[in-house]
Amino acid sequence: MDCGQSVFKIIPPRHFDQREKSPTKLTRFLPRGFLVTFKMTRSNGRWPTTFFRPYNVLNIVQQPILCLIKKYPPCFFLFIFYFDNMLQEENVEQKFTRLANILDELREKCPWDQKQTIQTLRPLTIEETYELGDAILDEDWDELKGELGDIMLHLLFYARIAKEKEKFTFGDVLTAISEKMIVRHPHIYGDVKVENEEDVKLNWQRIKLEKEGRKSILSGVPKSLPAVVKATRIQEKAAHIGFEWENKADVWKKVEEEIDELKNAEAEQSQSHVEEEFGDLLFALINYARFLKIDAESALERTNKKFMDRFAFMETEADKKQIHLENLSLEEMDALWEQAKRELKK
Question: What are the tens digits of pLDDT across the range 181-202?
Answer without folding.
Answer: 998 899 998 888 989 988 888 8
